[in-house]
Design a protein that fits this description.
alpha/beta; eight-stranded parallel barrel; 25% strand; 432 residues
Length: 432
């Protein structure tokens, strides 16, 4: 199996976090998001331990909330003493509702409104990750009203191509995010930010992209960033206290995806960081990284019920389910690969090739092409989409006026609802 928390019972049922997915589908209904709480906690602890061992006690991982955001996630992050990054006032609101201490939060986004900035400050945000000079000015203005200096770090683009999906690659010079080092804009915004009286510039951030497996992506980005840091110290006397290298380590969606030893990868980055600091005569800044997908993706699964099986002799076959692009949008967005399994027939040979498709009135409503199912697959069977803990619930929509699924947490052999299933009343709640 693609992940160690997935197995098969003697009866041929798919088990997730040791629990029978067929029974969970019966109990809670489908479509259904499952989240393995024990796995989430283990992934958090792996990052915390690896970063402290490699970079020192000041280093910290920040959970990238956009991967999957609801109250229980923030409660877990609080309990695991994880920092977080947030990208909207909605994520801030959710964290506040969960009782999370926002002094440990970093606020991202390439276009924060004045209302976003004020709301974040009113709730005690720790850092703004400032994307542009307009934001720095707005932060300075809002901080002046409150009579304090607001900590920020500047988002820079190091010009690194991570060789990943174009839609989730963010480190190139022409990215919509951040200020490019190569063009001189990074130096311009650094010098400008140093001059604002109510802004406390602490350092820099970069993020090269998501689903990164390439051996040296973080290492190359770190070298570029540290050389820039050394230049800013030499030319302008600015001493960087924080360097955030972003997130993006890949996870296994299909068997062909490689296994990543996260602790080993972090130790390799740390060696490059330490060697580069020594070469440049720098004290190593406080290092942050921002895992999101690699915290929650393999802790998630989506369950569906088969509705129809359509066979077009000589052409192709379709297996239609009771969800679709509304709750699993990544294939429709950028042809993301997934492992899909027939949860109640795991002991049967999978020799029937079909496209797994959703119920939306949209030809692009596809979960995965060329899935191998048992020949016997039929109405009422249960289908599981694995490694679905990231960018499913957080990207879900009500297209075709479909309610969003429930999220059920699995912990120590028990299950509980963390997010209720939407009703038709919920979908129409704001109609007037």
């Amino acid at each position: 199996m693609i992940c160690e928390n997935i197995s098969v019972s003697p009866e041929g049922h798919l088990l997730f976090a040791g629990q029978d997915t067929v029974e969970l589908a019966k109990k809670y209904g489908t479509p259904l998001y499952l989240m393995d709480e024990d796995r989430i906690r283990a992934n958090c602890r792996l990052y915390k331990k690896a970063m402290k061992e490699s970079f020192g006690d000041d280093a910290a991982p920040l959970y990238a909330s956009k991967a999957n955001c609801f109250k229980r996630i923030y409660e877990i992050m609080k309990e695991e003493d994880m920092g977080i990054d947030v990208v909207s006032s909605g994520e801030i609101y959710t964290a506040v509702k969960a009782g999370y201490d926002l002094s440990k939060a970093f606020f991202h986004s390439n276009n924060k409104t004045d209302e976003d900035i004020a709301y974040a400050m009113d709730n005690g945000i720790g850092y703004f990750v400032a994307d542009n000079i307009e934001e720095v000015k707005a932060v300075d203005k809002e901080a002046a009203k409150r009579g304090f200096r607001q900590k920020i770090i500047l988002r820079l683009t190091p010009g690194i191509d991570p060789h990943t999906y174009e839609a989730i690659s963010t480190g190139q010079v022409d990215s919509k995010f951040g200020s490019a080092i190569e063009t001189g804009q990074a130096e311009e915004i650094t010098v400008a930010a140093m001059g604002y009286p109510n802004v406390d510039l602490r350092g820099f951030h970069c993020h090269v992209g998501s689903q990164v497996f390439a051996e040296d992506v973080f290492e190359r980005a770190a070298v570029v960033m540290l050389e820039f840091i050394a230049e800013m110290k030499e030319k302008h006397g600015f001493v960087t206290k924080v360097l955030d290298l972003g997130g993006g380590y890949g996870v296994r969606y299909v068997e062909s995806d490689p296994h990543l030893d996260i602790a080993e990868k972090i130790s390799q980055v740390a060696k490059v960081v330490k060697d580069t600091c020594a070469r440049l005569g720098l004290d190593m800044p406080e290092i942050h990284m921002e895992p999101g997908r690699s915290i929650v993706a393999d802790a998630g699964m989506v369950l569906y019920t088969v509705g129809t099986v359509k066979k077009i002799a000589g052409y192709k076959n379709y297996v239609s389910i009771d969800g679709g692009m509304t709750d699993s949008p990544r294939y429709a967005l950028y042809k993301a690969a997934y492992t899909c399994l027939t949860a109640n027939k795991m002991n049967e040979k999978a020799d029937f090739k079909a496209s797994l498709v959703g119920r939306c009135c949209e030809s692009g409503d596809i979960i995965q092409e060329d899935v191998m199912f048992p020949e016997s697959i039929t109405r009422y069977d249960t289908v599981a989409v694995c490694t679905a803990g990231a960018y499913h619930y957080s990207m879900a929509s009500n297209y075709n006026r479909l309610p969003k699924p429930a999220t059920v947490m699995l912990k120590g052999g028990e299950s509980y609802i963390a997010v209720k299933r939407e009703t038709f009343e919920d979908v129409a709640r704001n109609d007037v």
